Fold this protein.
Amino acid sequence: MDDKKTRRPAAECEIDFIDERKVKRVRRAMKSVEAITSLAETFRVLGDPTRIRIAFALSREELCVCDIANLLGVSQSAVSHSLRTLRQMKLVRFRKEGKIAYYALDDDHIAELLEVGFGHVEEKR
Amino acid sequence: MDDKKTRRPAAECEIDFIDERKVKRVRRAMKSVEAITSLAETFRVLGDPTRIRIAFALSREELCVCDIANLLGVSQSAVSHSLRTLRQMKLVRFRKEGKIAYYALDDDHIAELLEVGFGHVEEKR
DNA sequence: ACGATATATGAACGTGTGTTCATGTAAGCG
DNA sequence: CGCTTACATGAACACACGTTCATATATCGT
């Protein structure tokens, strides 16, 4: 009853696995969906030049919003929005001193991610 | 001659710097635009659950497209598109054996990024 | 050579993202 | 107080992104 000329969609391979042993090993080691989701969000947040620059700057110095904006040459509003995104993923923390908000990296993992990342891209050329 | 009621846009802070010394130190250490752009793209590519899962799987085993699709439960087309994205950023490499394409992580930096990243998100809860 | 299989890819659709603009809030200062 | 400053945020727009669908390419078996 199939139409004669429609090739099967072939959406997936017909056989289930090429090498089921390897697949099972990986499946056992696979991280939880929460960990995957969370890590993907972390990387996504760092997947923007402005936020990378902010994170790198904060890996060197604790800085206020105004200085970050001037350092990067972008508007205060853009910096504030970016900082909020970084804050939501707990990549940065801040303390308030009067009117001024001082931001810093929340923990050393972020600086390490940046180091490893820059090591990767600098080697790749 | 200004309209009387329009507040200055205040797009940027009026004073140039709160702490110019810190800003100058960071500016000297700041990475090149190419490095920043490249790292941002790398993180952006990893900022997707499907590609994270693919990268993690490939950090454990060399796998063909078909097995990856079955492992993750997504279509072959989606996997192929994701692999292309990963390939373009040189995060994965592949070798072809007949009809079958075997993919693997291109270098150890990627596995290290995943390790550090998972360490970060698993500590954060 | 033909059909089946493994993978790649272009187009298109809905959704998400980053910036800007305008405005809000809170703290210092005269 | 009222004004200014430092920062936060909501709306909106233009653009990018991930998936699906359909189809193309390449290789194997017969």
Remarks:
- DSSP finds six helices and three strands in chain A.
- The CA atoms of residues 57 and 71 of chain A lie 9 Å apart.
